[in-house]
Specification:
six-stranded mixed sheet, 14 helices
């Protein structure tokens, strides 16, 4: 929201966005996604956040995405007088400029200082506004779904009002993480090519979740690579694996996914048909549900990005020695300005799964991040209540949903969740 008295940018003047630095990254960038500016000034306190490492990341991500310069303007100490002094110095440091101060987030000292400064300021170079991250996300998501409106995004990621949208990778970087990789690319780009195979595999296996989980844990003989005749081999090492393999192979062959197979007491050999173009679906038990979820989410038109198997570095620094701590996210989306973190479980949901996705969302996406748990099986009522209390979207019993029903369930769940946030 902007006050009706806000001054438009005069001809020949620079328009500078003044951000009151906040530890939540989305509050620092939402105004850049709403409107165009020539420079960004962060007001912060000396010897306080953001530290030099954060400043380098912020400059790299924000300037890299928007092309504008970042300046960190420091108040000498954490006091209202020092904050007023920092504000008062802006017109002299940046002549021939108008200043638009974003009151979203930021330290209360700066907010109080701004009131004092403006009460004695003679001129029209300053205006102030507050941006609602969630309401803006709803507006952007709805306009994207309709394919029209003031916030429609062009190919460069710029919206018609001049703002520039930040990507999921940008958001993760600003919160201190780093996207190492995804499979295989942004999902809307492969949705049509992979749609048939995703649906074929999901429909073949959705009612065999336990068997499919066990089958995918059977060790490969030579990895997922095919031999000269096109066969993949797995080795039985646990009791019951041969029975499980027979059940799965029989189903896949019946559905035209496996052309032929053979097994003895120790080994399974099978060959996928040439039409099985998404081999990764058969590597991990959860991949079918993950890709089915991504297919449904992309089909809602509500999300501007959708990825599966997103590998994240926890601290955003790739070490050349030893192993880095990493996390893998099953599905991720961007709903307007905010990231959505989705955990897919090919089993009954538990409270531990809820804690897991909530922790991931808050760590990598801050306080506005949306967390969702998708499960193939039905959740018990206590888990449903726990999800509601923890503000986690839960979609269960997906094995009984058609693609259209699943797509509608995602859209309905997100809309209801957002409405409840504003109650």
């Amino acid at each position: 929201m902007r006050p009706s008295g806000k001054q438009d940018k005069p001809v020949g003047m620079n328009r500078i966005l003044v951000e009151l630095y906040d530890n939540d990254a989305l509050e620092n960038i939402v105004s850049l996604e709403i409107g165009r500016y020539d420079k960004l000034v962060f007001l912060c306190f000396k010897d306080s956040d953001p530290d030099p490492a954060k400043r380098r990341v912020m400059s790299s991500v924000i300037s890299g995405r928007t092309g504008i310069e970042l300046v960190f303007e420091e108040a000498e100490e954490k006091s209202i007088d020092a904050a007023v002094k920092a504000l008062s110095g802006l017109p002299e440091k940046f002549p021939e400029s108008v200043f638009d101060v974003d009151l979203t987030g930021g330290d209360e000292i700066f907010i109080a200082a701004l009131g004092m400064f403006l009460s004695g300021y003679q001129g029209n170079a300053f205006s102030a506004h507050v941006s609602d991250v969630i309401a803006g996300s709803v507006s952007l998501a709805m306009s994207s779904k309709k394919g029209s409106g003031d916030n429609k995004e062009n190919e460069a990621g710029e919206v018609n009002n001049g703002g520039v949208l930040f990507s999921f990778s940008d958001i993760i970087r600003l919160y201190g993480g780093l996207v190492i990789g995804t499979w295989p690319e942004e999902f809307s780009g492969i949705m049509d090519r992979k749609r048939y195979e995703i649906l074929r595999v999901w429909n073949a296996l959705k009612d065999l979740a336990a068997d499919w989980n066990r089958f995918c844990s059977i060790s490969y003989v030579n990895g997922i690579e095919k031999d000269e005749e096109g066969y993949i081999s797995r080795r039985f090492s646990k009791s019951g694996e041969k029975v499980t393999a027979e059940r799965i192979m029989s189903r896949l062959k019946k559905r035209g996914i496996v052309s032929d197979y053979s097994m003895d007491d120790n080994t399974l050999k099978y060959r996928l048909r040439d039409s099985a173009v998404t081999e990764e679906l058969y590597v991990s038990s959860g991949t079918a549900l993950e890709m089915y979820t991504a297919l449904a989410a992309s089909g809602t038109g509500m999300f501007r990005e959708c990825y599966t198997k997103v590998l994240l570095d926890v601290n955003g620094v790739i070490s050349k020695q030893g192993s880095d701590p990493t996390n893998e996210l099953d599905v991720t989306m961007m709903y307007g300005y905010v990231p959505v973190f989705v955990s897919c479980k090919n089993t009954e949901p538990t409270k531990e799964y809820l804690y897991e996705i909530k922790t991931m969302a808050e760590h990598f996406g801050g306080k506005y991040a949306l967390a969702m748990l998708v499960s193939s099986k039905t959740a018990f009522q206590p888990v449903k209540e726990r999800a509601k209390e923890m503000h986690i979207m839960l979609i269960d019993d997906v094995q009984s949903l058609s693609l259209k029903e699943f797509r509608n369930a995602i859209a309905r769940t997100v809309r209801k969740f957002i409405d409840e946030l504003h109650d």
